[in-house]
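Re: the request from the purification team.
They wanted to know what the chain is likely to look like in 3D before they choose a buffer screen. I agreed to run a prediction and write the result into the notebook, where they can find it.
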Amino acid sequence: MSKDPELFDSADTESGRIRAPWERGFERILTPFEEFIHRQTTGGIVLMVSAILALMLANSGLATAYQHLLHLPAQVGIGDWGIEKSLHHWVNDGLMALFFFVVGLELKREMLVGELANPRHAVLPILAAIGGMLVPALIYAAFNAGGPGARGWGIPMATDIAFSIGVVALLAGRVPRALITFLVALAIVDDLGAVVVIALFYTEKLALGWLAGAALVLGTMLVLNLAGVRRTMPYFLLAAVLWYLLLESGIHATLAGVLGAFTVPARPRYDPALFSQRTRALLARFDASYRPGSSILTNDELRAVAQALGNGAIQVQAPLQRLEHLWNLPVAFLVVPVFALFNAGIPLDFGALATTLTHPVTLGVTLGLVFGKFIGITGTVWLALKLGIGELPSGTRLNQIAGVSLLGGIGFTMSIFIAELGFAAHPDELLMAKTGVLLASLIAGFSGYIWLRRAARAAPPAGV
């Protein structure tokens, strides 16, 4: 049979590659952690571009059109049933549920097989995250206790994992891998803390009937997990129902993402030994069915074996692992940037800049994120080491932990999200809170980068 020029490239066929040399599925192998870091780093760059674009739109001749876009109504419905919200609400209540879903997947993975699975390794980032949440909240409360901005105490508690890892990535090989792992574990525990704060303190009124329905759906998802259901579609459909029930219950609907993620099975259908055995048998059939010079489109046996190999490769991966791989990309490159585009557009009034910067909410958020994170994380780690609790990550120094604690002050995504919840009915305080988040993230990012760069030049001293 002659070669089809549309399907084959002579130069590539000799090496076994058919066209599309940019597709390197077999040539680039990344561990889940390496893939996570790569996507968070690139996502941080896209997020930064979106935030800058939002600021430009809010302070240009397109400001009116930008505000009109935010408040444009959009409805989803079937027949007489429907949900109508502004695009701004759909982004914050709907799209961000996918963000929280990925956060939940990352949390579960870390607790099962990551840094948080080993108590000896987990204790230090857990304590550091707790200190890094409490001190910023106390600093904020010191400026706003009893005032109109008191409700925003949760805003400076959060760390933006994409931005913080993106800054570390700019240092290339100047920081040890263990330090990045510490930062990831810290930020993930921080995310869990933020989720708990949202659930407990930023929920208005509860509708117990809807809440009972949500509990029933969540229980069904857990039963599916225990029953060994490994297909992801049932979990996806039930998570969508859970989102709606939580929306009606009064609890913020995005928490459906975290709760749904925790029900996703972490065990694959095939164990590695069985997968290896079946793959070898299928490869033997594949080799026996192969006909040089022919297209796979004309060889039914070859196509069927290739399909079986693909199905096996899917079944040997845990659904948790597959979903994290599937959703990390659209969340990092679409959901979070769209959230930034819809929420980071702050109108800047340079004439009132002094008033803005000295407002209690702005001061509380800025100082809480910059100094609160630094004192809370570094101080907690220092105290834990003095008390003999935990140990520094391999190859790292307390000086480098201090640099990471500065990066913890980059609170962008989650901090703005909490600000939207806390000050939804108070636009003035919301503006001040967002200003504080942007200012603090800028200061924390630059200072953390400079600190870690200078720390990398210093010769590592003996001990801590």
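For the purification team: Residues 427-457 form the longest helix (31 residues).
Please add any questions underneath this entry.
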